[in-house]
Amino acid sequence: MRSGRTIPMIFAAGVVLASSLCTAHAGSLAGSKGDVRREPRFGTMVHGPCAGGYDRYIAASGHSAYVSTPDGYGNENFICSWRLNFPSKAAAEEMALKDCLAGRKKYKFPIFGRCQVLASK
Question: Domain residues of the chain, as ranges?
Fold first, then answer.
């Protein structure tokens, strides 16, 4: 008799634990840097939309990605792309990389590095 009562209690505890973990993942990602592969560096002498794009990436509440090319001097703000609030992290990364690659084809400067995902969530 005793083991018959224990199994439903253990199962119920597992269901409660699993549902609490799912709830934590279902929350907003706003304010999170996510999986940072490399912190972006924005130079003070270069102006453009990339620093603002990174701020929008952090503020995004859904799966998002920020992609950039380094310029050879340690700056990130030459060719960049961000995709916000996609159905999945992988989809956001894929689209942001495609945008960055299109930018590299358009602006052909030998100083630009290759497109890299700097952060995604």
Answer: 29-120
